[in-house]
Amino acid sequence: MTAVLLSDLSNSAHMKLALVTPGARPTEATLYPCKSIEEFNASIVDFLEANNQPELMAAAVSACGWEVDGGFSMPNHGYRIDRQHLRELLNIQRLHVVNDCVCKAMAVDRLFTSELFKVCGGEGEDGQVRALVGAGRGLGLAAIIMDDLGHPTVLPCEGGHADLAVTTPREAQVFEHLERKYGHVSRERVVSMQGLAEIYEILGQVDAGDNRRVNASEVVALAHTGDARALEAVSLSQGFLAAMASDTALMLGARGGIYLAGEYVELISDLIDWKGFEARFTDKGRLRGYMQDIPVYLIRARDLELIGLTTLFG
Known about the structure:
This protein is an alpha/beta fold. It has helices spanning 37-50, 83-90, 100-107, 169-182, 193-208, 216-224, 228-252, 263-268, 274-281, 288-292, 304-310; strands at residues 2-9, 15-20, 30-32, 55-63, 66-68, 71-74, 79-82, 95-99, 116-120, 130-135, 139-146, 152-157, 257-261, 296-299. The protein is built from 11 helices and 14 strands.
């Protein structure tokens, strides 16, 4: 069977590998280590051997990074993928290496109804711009634009590094601490795994002189026990996420809808006050009615980046 190899490196701790027939969604993915380029190469070889050395027609990789001189730089991993080397390793000519947030956006039109949860908004406008906000270890953004034949084109963006705006004194306290630490304060600093931990730590310093360090999973675990500081940290990050989605909708004219995805969104989704999210999303003064018409969806699909990669093959 001629197959396509799919790989997702959006998580720096491991990568997902799957084999599919061209255009088909993956039924399952296998986790392999990828902490170095040597481990990445060895994992691919081991995976193909475990699957009886299939005949490959092509391969596609999703990764957090960008194109540099014939390769793909991945700062979270500390190494780069060289396109020619990977072609030679796999004995193929056709190879795609795509930004992971772009892959998420590419998957939107391949999702089942059961994989989309409508958070708020109206029905949206068919054929209009849509956008995906992907929050995980970072904060990504991609626009989805339809051509005259109804085919989507996904545009990569770096909106997660846009300046953070605050609207309340409490948000201003968080901003001031982050500014002293980093100088420039982007939205990614508060809408990401590390961002939630930073907010919790700042609240501890401001309110109780507590310098304890935490990670996002610990904050979420505390929030589930009713811990007031953890719940406030989630609430503040939720507000910043809603503001990001709202500003994205305005700047792109994304009347077709906003899609929320990513490891961080999944982590806090059952703690989000969606009514509060909607209030912040639509809080645009004279354009409140405009915002109320835009649907916002939470994506609940496994292996979203791999699903996006399949669209490259039919």
